[in-house]
Task: structure prediction
Amino acid sequence: MRIVIAEDDALLREGLTHLLRAEGMEVTSAVDNPDDLLSALAADRPDVAVVDVRMPPTYRDEGLRAAVQARRQWPGLAVLVLSAHVEESYATDLLADGAGGVGYLLKERVGKVADFLDALERVAAGGTAMDPEVVGQLLVRRRADDPLQRLTPREREVLGLMAEGHSNATIGGLLVISDGAVHKHIGNIFTKLGLPTTDAGHRRVLAVLAYLKA
Amino acid sequence: MIGRQWREAWRFLAFTMVVGFQAVAALVAMIGCVAMVVTLPLLPHVVRFARRLAAGERDRVGRFLATTIPPPPEGTSAGVAEVATNPHDRRDAQWLAFQGTVGLVAGSVAIASPAGLVQNLFIAAFWPFIPDAATTVDTPVESWAGAGVAVLIGVVYGLLGVFFVRPLARWWARTSAARLAPPKRTLTERLAEVTATRAAALEAHGAELRRIERNLHDGTQNRLVAVVMHLGMVERALTRNPAAALPMVATAQKAATDALAELREVVRAIYPPVLVDRGLTGAVASLVGHCAIPCTLDEHPIPRLPAAVEAAAYFVVAEGLTNAVKHSGADRITVGLRTENGALVVEITDNGHGGADQAHGSGLLGIRGRVAAFDGTTTIDSPPGGPTVLRVDIPAGP
Result:
């Protein structure tokens, strides 16, 4: 997998490069500002860009803006955005173009290397990786007459994992239940929420996130 | 000799009488409006007339004294409830009463002096043709001696005018300037208020610093110590028994992750990162989007404000929305964000059952304290049955 990294903190940039190379990935460029990111993307044409939200010159959301711009410029470019804090509205910005290959994770998730690599691969393959905290933010702000109240605790868990972008197989593995059980839970969730059944993958994530944001 | 200054004084005093009549009319109309309940809706019109009269007089008196008389602060509408509670309207009403009595008498001197002179001289000249002729002070004029008295009385009127009109005009101008200007006392009150809110702000700031220190010291720091300790244990274990290192690494990782989660909370409580990234409007839009009750943002372009003001406004909206969701029973909320006269105005309106109790709602107390620290004001209008409007004004300009 060919990767471009944009992260302004030197220690984190080196660490991330080291970690990915140790796992057999090819880090083609590691840059520290949005302009260099865009030129590196143009030159390297990587499979995934791993981008920090806050970068020079103003240390606001330059990285996020650059990521959105890059995806407009190179449709299909997979982007995994990392940040020290997550904000649900930023996820909305990233998902706005409706295309797959989007990730938005807290920086510290890198520490769970296996999970991080799984998310990276999912994003590179056109899937989604939403941080559990983003999904958590979406799940708490609900009104009293919410259809979500009708979900069983297990179904809520499955819904959360779906929103994070996990496949049926991974969900089954994480909750230690069979594929058939996962399938049944998902069917119940879609019926209870009145959502049209969607095939697995990015479109399902979009449908679920759109429902949670409504 | 009667000069230009005298003429100005005379004109000023004569017009004072005109304003006096208008003041009497306004006062009578005001009392009439309040006395007859059905006419109460007309009160705002009368109040607006009185405000205009006072404003015009401020201008006129200011010109005469060659100074500027500061107007009362603007802003309140002329609705019945506002008028009843507005101290400046009360002061205007007092001025109306003063202008309609003393002002009328003082102004009449300007008219009486030339009128008395002319009238008495006329009677002195033409008394044989006027039946029951008398001077203006009621002495009969039935002989030329009587006519001489009338001339004398006329001259006294004229001299009164010459000598009294100027000092009287100046005295009147100064007296009404003092009544038209916002009371001096409020400056002292303002100072007391500012001192009190400053003390409260310092106290709140101190409490905030202690809270942050405690969170960082007891939470985050200890977690990081645990990380370093476990990494030290890992270092030792790797040389002796590498298999034992693995659970220690996991513990260190967990401790570091907890430290990060706590740091995020602390940072969010100090200054929400979304404010840095998106500005106040963007950050509030995010709060509005999160709200459990359908909520819309009525936004107007606002400039970037001091960071502390933006943070205060952000927390006000956050607490206001939490309150509305918890207590109002509303199914629609609107958040308004705009600047008015250099102040940031936050308005949270919900269509719930009203009756918000500011004495007991700790959320409202928190908002009030936060806003007072910036010398701002918090008003809540929450009649039983709703709707509830929470309005916060925070001065943000220079």
